[in-house]
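Structural prep section.
Before we set up the soaks we want a predicted structure of the protein with NAP in place, mainly to decide which crystallisation condition to try first. Input record follows.
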Amino acid sequence: MATYLITGANRGIGLEYCRQLQARGDTVLAVCRTPSPELEALGVRIEAGVDLTSEAAVAGLVERLDGLTIDVLIHNAGILERTGLEDLDTESLRRQFEVNAIAPLALTRALLGQLPAGARVILMTSRMGSIADNSSGGSYGYRMSKVALCMAGRSLAIDLAPRGIAVALLHPGLVRTRMTGFSERGISPQEAVAGLLARIDALSLETSGSFWHANGQLLPW
Ligand SMILES: NC(=O)c1ccc[n+]([C@@H]2O[C@H](COP(=O)([O-])OP(=O)(O)OC[C@H]3O[C@@H](n4cnc5c(N)ncnc54)[C@H](OP(=O)(O)O)[C@@H]3O)[C@@H](O)[C@H]2O)c1
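Run finished without errors. Recording the C-alpha cells verbatim:
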C-alpha cells in the first residue's frame, strides 16, 4: 500500500480521492485550508490551514511532514473564475495563475526530497487548458493557468525522469462539484475518481508527461 498526498481534500474531487484511496487501503494525507465534516469523518490524517499560495503555509506543511515518504502527490486544488473579455479582471487572472499553476510547481519542489524513485506526481488540469481543443473561447484566467500547468507538468516529466518519478496531467471530465455549480450535465465525483485512479495506477515512466482524460483518452495539447 502506498502513501498519497492530496490537496484540496475537503470537498469535490479531492474529498472523493481521499474516500476511494482510504477504502482500498492506501494511506491518505489530506491537505486543505479548512477540513469539512465529510473529510473529518473519514479518519484519515488531515493537514489543515494550508493555503497553497502561502510560502509560509507550505513550509509549515513540509516541516510537519518531517521527511515522510510520499509515493503519489496529487495536486488537485484549483479555482475557476470565469473572466471573459468584457469583464477582464487582471487580479483574477493572477489569482488563478497562483493557485492553478504556480502552487503545484512550488509544492512539488518543496516535497522533492520526500519523493522516492517510483513516485508519481499528478497534476489535475482541465481540457479547458488544451489549446487545440479550445473552440468556445473565454475563461481567460482558467484556460491560461491550466495551459501553464500543463507546461510545468511536461517540464517536470523531463526533469524528474532521471530520479525515476513519473508525472501525469489529468482531466477529470465535467464533474458535479461546487466548481461547476454541481452541473446536471456532469458525472459524479465517484465516477470521475474511479477513472482518475485507473490512470494513476497505470502511469509509468514510459507514459510520463502525457495529458489524459479520466476515461483513458489521450488529449491534445
Ligand atoms: N469539476 C470539474 O468538472 C473539473 C473539470 C476539469 C478540471 N477540474 C479540476 O479538478 C480539480 C478539483 O476540482 P473540483 O471540481 O473538485 O473543485 P472544487 O469542488 O471547487 O474544489 C476545489 C478545491 O481546491 C481548494 N483550493 C482552492 N484554492 C486553494 C488555495 N489557495 N489553497 C488551498 N486549497 C485551495 C478548495 O479549498 P476551499 O474549500 O478551502 O476553497 C477545494 O478543496 C481542480 O484543479 C479543477 O480545476 C475540475
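Observations: The mean pLDDT is 98.
Flagged for discussion at group meeting.
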